[in-house]
Amino acid sequence: MEDYKLTKIMSTDVFSVEIDTPLIDVTNQMSEQKYSCLLVQQNNKPIGIITERDIVCFLSEALTNNSKSLSNNPPLAADLMSYNLIMLQEDQKILEALVICIANNIRHLPVIDSNGFLTGIVTYTDIANFQRNVMESQAAIIEKNISERTSELVKANHRLKEMTLQDPLLGIGNRRAMEIDIKCTHDLSKRYANDYAIAMIDIDNFKLYNDHYGHQAGDDALQKVTSSIMSSIRKSDRIYRYGGEELLILLPQTEPESAEKLVNRVLSELESEKIPHCKSPFEYVTASCGLAVYNSHLQGQNSEWSYVLESADKALYAAKNTGRNKVAVS
Predict the structure, then answer these.
(1) Domain count, the chain
(2) 308: which of 199, 224, 240, 290 lies 20 to 30 Å off by Cα?
(3) In whole angstroms, what is the distance from residue 296 CA to residue 191 CA?
(4) Using CA atoms in the order 287, 310, 188, 250, what is the torsion angle rounded to 10 degrees?
């Protein structure tokens, strides 16, 4: 699945409207074509999307407010479309689209060419069906060759493992999914001039915890820490397992002050859980955090997502080397 490009599954039969299209025409098109969404274009380039949910929310608000202006000033597509549209390039992989759909909780991804013109659309259902077919095909190869242990079997098994995007212990995205999500978030931030932040979190003195309490207890502690973090972050934030006892939080559309406030709350909430750690000077499980914020106005090497990740990692080491249980900002 990781080798296939979006063009293999995308639909090229895409319905769209111009930004100044009246809402009544939008709903008529959606009804006639039995579509759950319509793309909005300006100068033949997609700039937004209108979903059934957008229409329902718009009408609900209008009816609640007893609006009398709908008949006098009929709403246009621009009045209710969703902006900051997430779009993918034709040469991107299906696996990338899957991660982006899951991370952003969206079901429709417009596909554009190198000039920004719309060439198709991919839905979450398209991706899920394709993934299921690929996995069934690979499983059939494994079953067929199970007695022979051929090179084809080894390849198929390896490909199945590579398609995994979730950490089995913690139930959150793994490093592979993390890199895809950060790259997409970075590209969106550059396109719409938004900041975003990366927070690297490492459990303090975790080796001492494992040595004293045992690895099973260590796994339990990791799960508790992950649960604590998930309850402290916002709905739009995403958490991934970076490796070992290191976790990463991705904070889209977040400025430095808000990011620092949020990660300080994360560490404070974790300490308040009071997970016993007798080998720690704090007596409870704590964590250190390195924070880096991408400035959408930067250029050159410093504007790459890998640089932001590296900056967060360096800040984490600074936090650990200056007492732990704190946030260091790059």
Answers:
(1) 2
(2) 224
(3) 9
(4) -10
Q: Is 253 helix (H, G, I), strand (E, B) or coil?
A: coil
What pLDDT tens digit does each residue of the chain (330 aa) get? 556 788 888 888 888 889 888 888 888 888 888 888 888 988 888 988 888 888 888 877 777 766 555 666 778 888 888 777 899 998 898 888 888 988 988 888 899 998 989 999 998 888 888 877 877 777 776 666 665 565 666 666 666 555 578 898 999 999 989 999 999 999 889 888 889 999 999 999 999 999 999 999 999 999 999 999 999 999 999 999 999 999 999 999 999 999 999 999 999 999 999 999 999 999 999 999 999 999 887 755 567 899 999 999 999 999 999 999 999 998
297: in domain: yes
d(CA 206, CA 218): 8
Active site residues: 245
Are 188 and 296 part of one and the same domain?
yes
Question: Where residue 219 sits, what CATH number does that domain have?
Answer: 3.30.70.270
152 assigned to some structural domain: no
CA nearest neighbour of 16 among 61, 55, 50? 50
Q: How far is Cα 26 from Cα 310, in angstroms, rounded to an integer?
A: 46
Look at strands 118-123 and 108-112 and give their pairing: antiparallel
Q: Which amino acid is at 111?
A: V
Which residue type does 53 have?
R
Asked whether residue 151 is assigned to any structural domain, the reply reads no
- 3-class DSSP state for residue 283? coil
Sequence-separated (6 or more) residues with CB below 8 Å from residue 163: 1, 2, 95, 131, 134, 135
* C-beta of residue 270 within 8 angstroms of C-beta of residue 228: yes
Host domain of residue 288: 175-329
Structure tokens at 219: 């796994």
Q: In this structure, are 203 and 272 located in the same domain?
A: yes
Name the domain boundary from 110, 126, 142.
126
Q: From the CB of residue 297, how many other CB atoms can be counted at a distance below 10 Å?
A: 9
CATH number at residue 122: 3.10.580.10
165 belongs to a structural domain: no
